[in-house]
Design a protein that fits this description.
With 144 residues, the protein is α+β, with helices and mostly antiparallel strands. Helix content is 25%, strand content 40%. The protein has three helices and six strands; from the N terminus they run H-H-E-E-H-E-E-E-E. A six-stranded antiparallel β-sheet has the order 1-2-4-5-6-3. Strand 4 (94-104) and strand 5 form a beta hairpin. The model has no long low-confidence stretch (mean pLDDT 97).
Length: 144
């Protein structure tokens, strides 16, 4: 059953994270889905003049992670593994990762995410396995 209060608290939790503040990412969460937007910042470029792959991973993993955590209302989930495919470089604009849960078992969740540029061209994709962690979702970790 969708829980918009839970989604807003997850959004607040993400927006309070130091790395998210540093890179300027934003999130919108719904049932089994999450969208992450991130401005392309030249301070995060590699030597060849395009956005570093670490930012692709950050956007894709967070989109998949929050899609999963939208279904888990008591604890912080953990990324067990994440595969990423970098398809094209980007050096300006905004990127958007759209993540969704594609399957789950009693102990694991499987999610995918696709990363788009400002023209809605696919620039990367990834998929991961997630599990429930032990850290409770509380105001102390920004879940408020």
């Amino acid at each position: 059953m969708p829980n918009s209060t839970h989604y807003r608290k997850l959004e607040n939790m993400m927006h309070s994270a130091p790395i998210v503040k540093l890179v300027g990412a934003r999130v919108e969460i719904s049932h089994g889905q999450a969208d992450i937007t991130l401005p392309v910042n030249q301070n995060l470029f590699h030597a060849a003049g395009a956005l570093h792959g670490a930012m692709y991973f950050l956007a894709l993993d967070n989109a998949a992670f929050f899609a999963v955590n939208s279904l888990v209302e008591d604890v912080f989930v953990l990324t067990v593994s994440f595969n990423i495919y970098l398809l094209r470089p980007i050096d300006k604009g905004i990127i958007k990762a759209s993540g969704k849960v594609v399957n789950s078992t009693r102990t694991q969740y499987f999610a995918e995410a696709i990363l788009y540029d400002a023209d809605n061209k696919e620039i990367a994709r990834g998929s991961g396995v997630f599990v429930k962690g032990k850290v409770k979702l509380t105001p102390e970790i920004g879940y408020k």
